[in-house]
Design a protein that fits this description.
228 residues; Arc Repressor Mutant, subunit A; 2 domains; 4-stranded antiparallel β-sheet; elongated
Length: 228
C-alpha cells in the first residue's frame, strides 16, 4: 500500500467533526481492518503522513486529515535541488513565468489601496538603497513580489511562490549585491533594477494586464543585464 492510496482511503473514511468541521479519521484498529494491513505497517505509514503534514495526530484526541502548508513544497524543492533533479536555471525560469502571469492577473484585481501600498514598497526600496541599507531594500523587494500574489489571492499560485521563493532567496540576495556593485546611475535617481518596479505599479494602476506582464518581463531583463 503506497501513501497516495492511504491518503485517498483516509479521505474516503474521514468524518467531519461536529463543531469544528475537521476531518477525523478512524482509529488505527478500524483502519487496519478496513485496509487489511497490519497495525505495525499502518502505524509506520501514518507516522510518515504526519511528518509530511497530511495528518494531525494528538494522543487522546484522535487523528485528523489536513492539507500540508508550504513547508512540504519547500522541502521537496530543497531536496530536488540538492540531489540535482532540478537546476537553479529551472527554478529561476519557473519563477519568471509565474510572476509574469501573476502581474497580468493582478492588473484586473488591484484596488487603489493595493496600488498605493505597492508604490510605497518601491519607494522604500529606493530610499533604503540610497541610505545604504541593503537589508531593508531587499525586504521591500521581496515584500513587493509577495504582495502581488496577495492581490491575486489564488492559493495555488501562493504555495508555488512560497516554495520557489524559499529556494531562490539566497540568489535574490546575491543578485541585489551584484546589482549594487555594477549598476550605474546618476545622482538623485533610483537604480534601474529598483526603478523598473514602478513600471509594474503604473500598469496595475491603469488596469492594463498586457502592460503589467510586459513590465514584469522587463523587470527580469533589467535584473539579468545588471548581474550577468
Amino acid at each position: 500500500m503506497d501513501l497516495t492510496f492511504l491518503v485517498r482511503s483516509l479521505a474516503e473514511q474521514a468524518v467531519p467533526e461536529p463543531g469544528t468541521g475537521r476531518l477525523r479519521v478512524p482509529t488505527e484498529r478500524e483502519l487496519g481492518a478496513s485496509l487489511e494491513v497490519s497495525r505495525g505497517s499502518l502505524r509506520e505509514q501514518l507516522s510518515t503522513l504526519e511528518m509530511l503534514g497530511f495528518l494531525d495526530r494528538t494522543q487522546g484526541r484522535g487523528s485528523y486529515l489536513q492539507v500540508p502548508d508550504a513547508g512540504f513544497l519547500q522541502m521537496y524543492f530543497d531536496l530536488s535541488r540538492q540531489l540535482g533533479q532540478l537546476t537553479h536555471a529551472q527554478f529561476s525560469s519557473a519563477r519568471e513565468m509565474l510572476e509574469i502571469s501573476v502581474a497580468e492577473a493582478a492588473a484586473g484585481l488591484a484596488t487603489s489601496k493595493d496600488v498605493a501600498e505597492l508604490r510605497e514598497l518601491v519607494d522604500e526600496m529606493v530610499r533604503s538603497d540610497e541610505a545604504g541599507d541593503e537589508h531593508r531594500a531587499l525586504e521591500a523587494d521581496l515584500e513587493f513580489h509577495r504582495r502581488l500574489f496577495t492581490v491575486v489571492d489564488n492559493p495555488i499560485y501562493t504555495i508555488l511562490r512560497e516554495g520557489l521563493a524559499h529556494v531562490l532567496r539566497g540568489s535574490v540576495v546575491e543578485r541585489r549585491r551584484l546589482a549594487a556593485e555594477r549598476e550605474t546611475r546618476t545622482a538623485g535617481t533610483a537604480r534601474p533594477s529598483d526603478a523598473v518596479h514602478y513600471e509594474i505599479v503604473d500598469a496595475l494602476a491603469a488596469g492594463d494586464a498586457a502592460a503589467a506582464g510586459d513590465a514584469m518581463r522587463r523587470h527580469f531583463v533589467v535584473w539579468r543585464s545588471a548581474v550577468e
